[in-house]
Design goal:
- With 160 residues, this protein is an all-alpha fold.
- The protein contains five helices and no strands.
- Helix 1 crosses helix 3.
């Protein structure tokens, strides 16, 4: 199989039982989980979310954060910067500005923000325990999903 595309032989992925055609290559955990993280960020930034359904009724929105809470999150991120090992958050997420954050960060930055910043700094900003627990469960599921090996118990935790 020698052609102008440089393909010399069939891909070994094609013989796997999980292979379901070209769509198999369209998803990877990096971009899939970062998209979950971006959707979560949309929950927090209702003012900049075009599909937000609580316009005019923001006080009833369970994920509403005040400007003061966003400032506290930014301060916490800035203060923790000296404790972050070199290479992590390098050049990204110095502060959260919902107006322009969507296009500025790479998928890996979204994941780092979600599995490190959200459970340690952001979840505690919510008074409702159910919201905190849901946020922590989602961040944990994403973190477990990114591991090289997932145990049966961890798989059940992810499903839950």
């Amino acid at each position: 199989m020698n052609n102008s595309y440089g393909i010399k032989s069939p891909s070994p992925i094609g013989v796997l039982s999980t292979f379901s055609g070209a769509c198999t290559f369209g998803f990877d955990e990096l971009h899939g989980i970062s998209n979950i993280n971006k959707l979560f960020f949309d929950l927090l930034s209702s003012r900049y979310n075009s599909s937000f359904k609580y316009h005019g009724n923001e006080s009833n929105y369970p994920f509403q954060l005040s400007n003061l809470q966003i400032d506290c999150l930014n301060q916490g991120m800035d203060k923790s910067r000296v404790l972050i090992p070199a290479g992590v958050f390098q050049g990204s997420f110095k502060s959260v500005n919902p107006a322009n954050v969507k296009g500025m960060y790479r998928s890996v930055d979204w994941i780092d923000w979600f599995i490190y910043v959200v459970p340690t700094l952001l979840a505690s900003l919510f008074d409702d325990r159910k919201i905190r627990d849901a946020i922590l469960a989602l961040t944990r599921a994403c973190a477990l999903s990114l591991q090289w090996v997932v145990t049966k118990d961890e798989l059940e935790e992810i499903k839950t």
